[in-house]
Amino acid sequence: MARLDQMRSVLGRCTPPEHLRGQVLDQVRTMRAGQREDTIRGAHAALSGKVKDGRDGRRGGAFGHAVAVAPGGAAVSRRGFVIAGAAACLGVGAVGVGLASRMRGGAGSGGAPGASGAAAAGTDAGALAANPFGLAVAYADEGGEPAEPGSPVALEARLDGLLPIGDTTGWYMTLKLNLACVGEGIETVTYSLAGDAARVTDGSEPSPVPDPLLGTYVYDSYEQELQEKGVNQTGGTVQFGTMGDPRIRGTEQGMRVDDWLSARTAERLEAGLDPLEMFSFTVDYADEPGWDGTFATEWGEAYRVLRVTFQDAFWACDEVVAAKRAWLDASAKGGETSEELQANQEAARAARAAYEELFCEVAATEESLYAWLQSVNRTCFGLAAEMLAQVTLGVDATFADGSTAHRDYRIEPVENLDEVADGRFAALVERYGLGEEAYDPSLAPFWNFSDYVPEPDEPDERLTRALFSIADVTEA
Amino acid sequence: MGRFRCGRDCGAAGRRVVRDEAFIAQAMDRWGPAVWRTALMHVPTWADAEDVYQEVFIRLACDATEFADGEHLKAWLLRVALNRCRDLARRRRRRGEVVGLDDIAFEPVDPGGPEADVLRSDEVNRLMWAVKALPAKQREAVQLHYGEGLSCDEVARVLKIKPSAVRMRLKRARERLQRELGGAFDGEARPDAFGVGALHTA
Q1: Contact criterion met (CB < 8 Å) for A205 and B73
Q2: Are strands B185-186 and A468-472 parallel, antiparallel or unpaired?
Q3: Which of A137, A160, A398, B143 is in Cβ range 3.0-4.6 Å of B41 for a Cys bridge?
Q4: Cα A380–chain centre separation
Q5: Strands A209-211 and A198-201, bridge-based pairing
Q6: CB contact (8 A) between residue B164 and residue A245
Q7: In chain B, which among 56-115 make CB contacts under 8 A with chain A?
Q8: Burial bucket for residue A411 (CB in 10 Å: 0-12, 13-18, 19+)
């Protein structure tokens, strides 16, 4: 009898054909040779006067031993220098020292893959992502010098801050919370969300989610338990993104899953709290994030994301979507008797037929389908903006001297949000196409690109345009 | 012989090699088999698998990601490999291409080994083919978890989904395999009992 765990044994000694290794290395050499001319031109340009203000290059004999002094006076190896030159050739606005030092620790490293490499943070004093969450407070940096403890704190947004992750058209949106700053003497940072819609919950995806195979909802068992306890998950929320599974955490603490979950749930219910509500958490400023950008919090691993849900408003956003909701609701109904079950199944079939009729109208042509999805997508950004307007993002810093600082921020949509959202949608469709999933009534309009290659070969300005901005709303 | 397509997929127009040849070579030595197995399980033909393999390591050569450790690099390679496989499938779907599966036989390396009879059995071959015929999402989870030995959390990080979703995909895959294979399939996972095995093309 075959078992899945035999897969590893069967595949275990499977190795790639020997010629592949040589082909890859040959191609790398060919590409590198093709780059050589550009590299030489870039290096010569830098050496001949483009690098000034303490950056004048010194040639140490042959080109192969060229050494340059990068901003700040740090000596840059030939490798770092060459890369900086190459970056200049490409028009990349890279910061010389930062790039070079990062490359030495990573891409340009001759170290063995698998060896523990130096983390990026800390090698680039000017990097904004010094804090693990990418969002931090800092002493106001006026005149180039860090202010004294107790001075006002400030927050900055990087270019790719608050952009969607996964580009899902549906009743939730995940935004990259890539706000950052640097500061001195910060020990911990506490992040908090305030407002009726604020929540910090577990789970990397909202549940329930419609299952295309079953044509109905699939509830995550944990959240289903909470729903059975009366916790309302259908309204809109704004959450920090954590992936810590409370059941796993319970196991790690040596408790049976059910016991741990029950204890935590009871504890929070007794305190009058929603078991899912974790409004704030604290991270050590010096903590390094995990390789995938996660970092440890008291609630588990957290991502640098802000997750916004708007279920009720989404399902009412147009008649097609509303019809789908009616079908999903109908199909989720069972029955205590066979007659009741049969009646509910018939109702579900009728609801499905009604939805599919509407869907077929909007999916009649690629143009009409595009227009519908674009409209739903635009609506989703508007709904997300409405939810974000209901919360305040608080940041509390604790400094080494014991002093603290607090700031409140609000995330606001850009003025031309619809236009930017439409542009983003157009860029994604151009890049990836609508895909056959878009024509599937059981999936639509949950249309997303997250399953496919997210790495663009060429930058598209429409995909980096800001959708939201952050405003300091701290009361004096 | 694989059809190398770096000019398109590696983006020769905008990408440059930024890593040492030694780094790429060592990465292939250490993680190449995992990338190869991943490619074989998710594309229909041997030639496609060769393409995917080459594209993955050329992308590594052109990518400036700083890897924290070997596991980070492995996860990155597997993710890129899966993305390449998905890309290939999407391109084929758009072009309306239907590609037959290569005749790949799954056989043990050591014909005289204690588990050879089991590994050589038709049941194992049927299982491997049934896994290859699973829906892509289930197949990815099965291959990474059972084929590569990644934990559910590790699979979740590679696939960028939550662990509970991984478990759900595995559960559905087992159910589907049970339907497909009936009594020839034991859905219960057990500790690895075999030491060797191999994959050969016919």
Answers
A1: no
A2: unpaired
A3: B143
A4: 17
A5: unpaired
A6: yes
A7: 57-58, 61-73, 75, 83-84, 86-87, 90, 93-94, 106, 108-109, 115
A8: buried
Count the residues in chain B: 202
Chain-chain contact of A2 with B11 (C-beta, under 8 angstroms): no
Identify which of B169, B175, B167 has the alpha carbon closest to the alpha carbon of residue A211. B169
Query: Any idea which residue has 């080994």 for tokens?
Result: B113
Contact A3 B21 (CB under 8 A): no
Angle between helices A366-388 and A338-362 (to 10 degrees): 110
Q: CB A1 to CB B185 under 8 A?
A: yes
Q: How much of chain A, in percent, has pLDDT values that exceed 90?
A: 9
The answer to whether the beta carbons of residues A152 and A403 sit under 8 Å apart is: no
Rounded Cα–Cα distance for residues B136 and A309 (Å): 28
ipTM of the complex: 0.78
- A92 at B interface, C-beta within 8 A: no
* Span A24-70, pLDDT tens digits: 998 888 887 776 555 444 433 433 333 223 323 222 222 222 222 22
Q: Is B138 on the interface with A (CB under 8 A)?
A: no
- B84 pLDDT exceeds 60? yes
Which chain B residues are closer than 8 Å to A13 by Cβ? 109, 196-198
- State which residue of chain B sits closest to A8, comparing Cα positions: B147
Beta strands (DSSP E) in A134-197 are 138-139, 141-142, 145-146, 153-154, 156-157, 168-169, 172-176, 179-180, 186-194
| B chain contacts of residue A27, beta-carbon cutoff 8 Å | 4, 6, 54, 58
**Record: contact A10-B57, CB cut-off 8 A:** no
CA distance B90 to chain A (A): 8
* Size of chain A in residues: 476
The single-letter code of the amino acid at B108 is P
Residue A364: alpha-carbon gap to chain centroid? 34
Residues on chain B touching A112 (C-beta within 8 angstroms): 23, 26
Q: Is A267 exposed, middle or buried (0-12, 13-18, 19+ CB in 10 A)?
A: exposed
Burial class (CB in 10 A: 0-12, 13-18, 19+), A455: exposed
Helix axes A221-228 and A257-270, enclosed angle (nearest 10) = 40
Q: A250 vs chain B: nearest CA distance in angstroms?
A: 15
Neighbouring residues of A226: CB distance < 8 A, sequence distance ≥ 6: A233, A265, A275, A276
**A30: nearest CA partner in chain B:** B17
* Cα gap B115→B124, rounded to integer Å: 12
> Does A457 sit within 8 Å of B54, measured CB to CB?
no
Calpha distance A238→A246 (Å, rounded): 19
State how far the alpha carbon of A81 is from the alpha carbons of A55, A98, B22, in Å. Answer: 11, 12, 20
- Cβ-proximal residues to A102 (8 Å cutoff; 6+ apart), any chain: A120, A123, A124, B64, B66
Helix (H, G, I), strand (E, B) or coil at A259: helix
Closest CA of chain B from A396, distance in Å: 29
Contact A187, A400 (CB under 8 A): yes
The answer to whether residues B69 and A116 touch, using CB atoms and an 8 Å cutoff, is: yes
Decide if A117 touches B, using CB distance below 8 A: yes
pLDDT band at A434; cut points 50, 70, 90 = confident
Interface contacts A/B by beta carbons within 8 Å? 255
Tell me the pLDDT of chain A averaged across its residues: 59
pLDDT digits (tens, 9 = 90+) for B135-173: 888 889 998 998 888 888 888 888 877 777 788 888 888
